[in-house]
Design a protein that fits this description.
Layout (H helix, E strand, L loop, with lengths): L16 H11 L1 H33 L3 H51 L2 H5 L2 H42 L1 H48 L1 H7 L2 H53 L5 H13 L1 H28 L17 E3 L4 E3 L4 E6 L2 H11 L7 E3 L2 E2 L5 H7 E4 L8 E2 H5 L7 H10 L3 H5 L8 E2 L8 H15 L3 E5 L7 H14 L4 E5 L3 H4 L4 E6 L2 E6 L1 H7 L1 H8 L4
Parallel strand pairs: 3-10, 3-11, 6-9, 9-10
Antiparallel strand pairs: 1-2, 1-4, 4-5, 7-8, 11-12
Helix pairs in contact: 1-10, 2-3, 2-5, 2-9, 3-5, 5-6, 5-10, 6-8, 6-10, 8-9, 8-10, 14-16, 14-17
Length: 562
């Protein structure tokens, strides 16, 4: 088993879903045990009511008014206790449900944040989304059913003891009948588990497909691919539907067994009890009590069947959570220190001087991305930051001091002000300066509430160029020690690009900045330009020097045009 999040170092070695569910139960042991106590008392009170009713009927038969009043008062007291314990049982069940579900959310969210760029490489979007959509509900449900399930076991044992003490044949009938019913339900659990697992996988894949379609809808419309992807989504959704029907088939049989099997036991117990009453072996009051006991047993036995179903679903869901928690981050940090300085990638030879606006023009876009990933410690590499190796620094420190911004970055749902000022410490003037540097002031002015306008998920109300400018403003507001920008102006028009190039140089004056781009407008504003070809540095200088002295560089930035 791989390590779990450092945010919760007290976690045990959760190598299986059962261990995860057990760990979750232990973390809320006090409320869980309290709820089990209320549930047990709730069931026990109901189990005692048939006996009290039987005694009351015997008092009516004997015309004993005082006994009738006494048993009626006892029945009223039991009813009040049942009402109180029922309320408290439900309250504790909801608490345990929410605690287990949201503890799982917190755990997976912390681990997802720790994984960072590793998570989307290892798991699909739909797989992660499904944890929050359905898995946490099943894990919470497995904690909820423990309360009633434990109480149901105690209630069945209590009724069995009462019946044995009253009538040995009836007690033995219940004693052996309940295990036989549980054994009859057992064969349904394995196919249910298998079909639920398959349905869960298909649901995750469908969620991924939906997320991809929504994210690329603008592109699909541009190339006329909507119908193709609509057909693919329809096919996958039908597979999910068929898998869901398969799960429902087994669940329907299980639900039917919850009614039929207890019903058979009730009929058997009632029939045997009636024969005893006809033979004069038991009084009428006891016959009524036996019938009520048989009817009462439906509840506990159905609860046990429901517990088997919910725990099976919780087991499947816990397996999905364990799959996320078992992923280790690709990059880890050390405990070293660095005062900053020159940032250098030994593999490519790219050297970023402190306080200088450096541009990197790569003949192949992938080479620029690879350099940026190594400099930001998103992939492993021999990179030094001042006198220290980057891999020896704590990863959180690297993230706070070196910011890599590419076009895969997203805007999140919320107020635009909060999306831009992620650290929450910028003034209105600082936000305005960042927006001006990114040529994004017009975007904010066009919004009905300005910076207080609510941005939809991924900023879909903005065009590609507008999103790119807002992301650039957000990066400038973060004001990192080292800022690495990957193609920050690829989606804007030439006039905006020229203004951004000029203002970006002023905004980052005196601070370390690397811009990966092949735009001549941006390259001409850089203090130093590095040309990378085949993953290695081939030439360095100013933009104009390289245009005159390096034909390969000129071909890269002019795209083969004179």
């Amino acid at each position: 088993m791989r390590s779990l999040p450092e945010a919760d170092p007290g976690l045990p070695d959760l190598r299986s879903p059962i261990r995860f569910l057990w760990w979750n139960a232990r973390r809320q042991a006090a409320p869980l045990l309290t709820g089990i106590g209320f549930a047990t008392l709730w069931w026990l009170v109901q189990a005692l009511m048939p006996a009290v009713l039987g005694k009351g009927i015997e008092a009516v038969t004997a015309k004993d008014t005082s006994a009738l009043l006494r048993w009626s008062a006892i029945l009223l007291g039991l009813g009040l206790v049942q009402a109180f314990t029922g309320i408290m049982r439900h309250r504790m069940a909801v608490y345990c449900w929410l605690a287990a579900a949201y503890r799982t959310v917190q755990l997976t969210t912390r681990h997802a944040a720790r994984l960072g760029a590793t998570l989307p490489k290892r798991l699909s979007t739909g797989e992660v989304v499904s944890v929050g959509n359905s898995d946490i509900a099943h894990i919470g449900g497995s904690m909820d059913i423990l309360l009633r399930g434990a109480g149901a076991v105690v209630a069945i044992v209590t009724v069995t003891v009462i019946l044995i003490s009253t009538s040995l044949p009836l007690g033995l009938l219940v004693l052996f009948g309940v295990p036989l019913m549980a054994a009859a339900v057992g064969p349904l659990l394995r196919p249910l588990h298998r079909r639920q697992h398959r349905h869960r996988e298909l649901t995750g894949e469908l969620s991924t497909r939906a997320a991809d379609i929504v994210a690329g809808l603008r592109v699909l419309r541009g190339i006329g691919g909507e119908q193709v992807f609509s057909e693919r989504y329809r096919e996958e959704s039908q597979r999910v539907r068929r898998a869901g029907v398969g799960v429902a088939t087994v669940e329907s049989v299980l639900e039917g067994a919850q009614v039929v099997l207890p019903g058979l036991l009730i009929a058997l117990v009632t029939g045997v009890g009636a024969s005893f009453a006809v033979a004069g072996e038991i009084p009428t009051g006891q016959l009524v009590a036996f019938y009520l006991y048989a009817v009462f047993l439906i509840g506990p036995m159905r609860t046990l069947t429901e517990a088997a179903d919910r725990i099976t679903k919780g087991h499947v869901a816990a397996g999905r959570v364990i799959r996320i928690l078992s992923i280790d981050p690709e990059m880890t940090g050390g405990t070293g220190e660095s005062d900053g300085g020159v940032l250098r990638d030994s593999f490519s030879g790219v050297t970023v001087q402190p306080g200088v606006l450096t541009a990197l023009a790569a003949s192949t876009p992938g080479d620029a991305v690879a350099v940026a990933d190594r400099l930001g410690r998103y992939t492993d590499g021999d990179v030094t930051f001042g006198p220290a190796e980057l891999r020896t620094l704590p990863l959180a420190e690297v993230r706070s001091r070196i910011l890599v911004v590419d076009n895969g970055a997203r805007l999140f749902n919320g107020r635009l002000r909060d999306e831009l000022d992620v650290r929450g410490g910028a003034t209105d003037d600082q936000i305005s300066e960042a927006l001006d540097a990114a040529c994004a002031t017009d975007i904010v002015e066009a919004l009905p509430d300005g910076l207080d306008s609510v941005v939809s998920e991924a900023g879909r109300e903005f065009s590609g160029g507008q999103q790119q400018r807002l992301r650039l403003a957000r990066a400038l507001l973060a004001d990192p020690e080292v800022l690495v920008l990957v193609e920050p102006t690829s989606a804007v028009d030439a006039h905006s690009e020229a203004r951004i190039a000029e203002r970006l140089a002023k905004a980052r004056a005196g601070r370390t900045t690397l811009i990966c781009t092949t735009s001549p407008l941006v390259l001409d504003r850089a203090d130093h330009v590095i040309h990378v070809q085949g993953g290695r540095v081939r030439a360095e200088g100013t933009h104009r020097e390289l245009l005159d002295g390096s034909p390969e560089y000129a071909a890269t930035v002019t795209r083969g045009e004179d």
